[in-house]
Each structure stands twice: as structure tokens, then as C-alpha cells.
Amino acid sequence: MSSVRICPSILNADRSNLSAEIDRISEVSDLLHLDVMDNIFVPNFTFAFEEAISIIKQSSLPVDSHLMIADPDLHAPRYAEHGSTSVTFHLEATTNARTLISNIKGNGSRVGVAIKPGTPFSSVEPFMAEIDMLLVMTVEPGFGGQKFMQDMMPKVKAARTWISENNAKDLWLQVDGGISLATIEEATLSGADTFVAGSAVFSSPNPAQMVRDIRIASEKCQGSSAS
Ligand code: DX5
Ligand code: ZN
């Protein structure tokens, strides 16, 4: 069993043929990362609710929904109800993180909390003991294909230190944005164990091989990651 999780993002995959795109990477990936954007929380729109739910229902992989939406308090629990394996909302968008965490969990999904580049680890720390995944954004949310923000690594390290000190072995630490063969080592060495990769995977001529290569590169430096 792999010690890391690779979650390809279909944001920049061929939208006209999504199920074929998913099939290309399903055997080698852990979760399918589904970026839901509402053109309010971020300046981009991806899927309407019904469309996202239909992808969740049809996906051959468990789905990791990343909700970049303005009203997660209302909508995020519905992704859990409809079978998304993991549901991640943005801390910046909720009015009551604690209630939302419990509403998502109550519907049987893993719960993730995402923080944008400008949000410090200290803002999410009070919720760490209640969540299944922390997503540290390594780009401003909204678009695929952006440059990895190296200056987010101290935040990833702070989260990894918290996880180690609190023995929170089941809490996944995800990074999203600009992950590729060029950045996977640094993200792993900083302590991330769950990786979203969009353009690196789907702009590759062989997406499945790229997922394998990213996994191998991460596993190679897992042993020496920050603790
Ligand atoms: C950005 C999204 C990402 C995006 C990643 O807001 O949350 O998941 O698809 O794409 P790449 O890997 O191209 O940065
Ligand atoms: Zn994402």
C-alpha cells in the first residue's frame, strides 16, 4: 500500500469526455479531485450542483470534492449525502466551521478544510482535532495551471508538526496547485501526504504514467519528510 495519495484534478481534463478521462487514471489514482467553483467565492465557474453530483455518482474512483463556493454551510453537506467520499470546504467561506464539520461527517463523508494562501495555519488549528484532512492551497484557488507557491511550505510544515505532536495519524495533509514532478519533492519534504495534480497529469501524453511517476517521486522522499 502506498504511503501517499495522488488525486488527479479533472479541472483541465477534456470536459466533453469526462468519463473516458477518469478511466485513463482510475487504476493508478487514489481519489478523483473534483473542483467545484461558483464564480462567487472564486472568479471561475466549473460545475452546477447536479452536474457535480452526476460525476460523483458515475466516477469509477472515490471522489474528493473541493468546494470553492460561497455558501458551504448550505451546500457542502449535500455532497456528502450524495456519496462524495471526501468533502472539503473553505474556512474563509463558512460562518460556522464546527457545525459544518459535524454536518458533513454526519452524512458519512470524510471532512476536509481548505485554507487559501493568505490564511494562516493558526486560523484552522482550533479545528484540526475534528477534521480528516487539511488542504493547504499552494495557489490562489480559481484556476488550474498556476505556479506552485513555495512560500506556502512553512504552513505545510506547521501543519505536519501539529499532526505529529498530536499523533493524528489519520489526518491527511493535502496540497493543491502547481504539483508536478518539479514540485512534488519539496511538497513531500515539507510534510504533505496527499497531492492534487491537474495540469501535470492531464497535459501529459500519458496521464496514468504521470500519476505513477509523481507517486514514486513522493514515496522516495517520504521517509525523510519533516516531522
Ligand atoms: C485550483 C484548483 C486545483 C487545480 C489544480 O483552484 O483547486 O485543484 O485544478 O490544477 P494544477 O495542478 O494545474 O495547479
Ligand atoms: Zn482543487
Summarize the structure.
The protein is built from 9 helices and 8 strands. It has helices at 18-25, 49-58, 72-81, 97-106, 121-124, 153-165, 184-190, 199-202, 207-222, and strands at 5-8, 32-37, 63-68, 86-90, 110-115, 133-137, 172-176, 194-197. The structure holds D-xylitol-5-phosphate and zinc ion.
Strand line-up in the sheet with most strands: 1-8-7-6-5-4-3-2
Which stretches are low in confidence, meaning pLDDT under 50 for 5 or more residues running? none
CATH superfamily: Aldolase class I
Taking the sheet with the most strands, its summary is: 8 strands, parallel
> Any idea what the shape is?
globular
Describe it:
There is one protein chain. The protein is α/β, with parallel strands linked by helices and 227 residues long. The chain has nine helices and eight strands. The protein has one domain: TIM Barrel, CATH 3.20.20.70. It has an eight-stranded parallel β-sheet. β6, α6 and β7 form a beta-alpha-beta unit. α7 packs parallel to α9. The radius of gyration is 16 Å and the shape is globular. 46% of the residues are buried. It binds D-xylitol-5-phosphate and zinc ion (ZN). Zinc ion (ZN) binds next to β2.
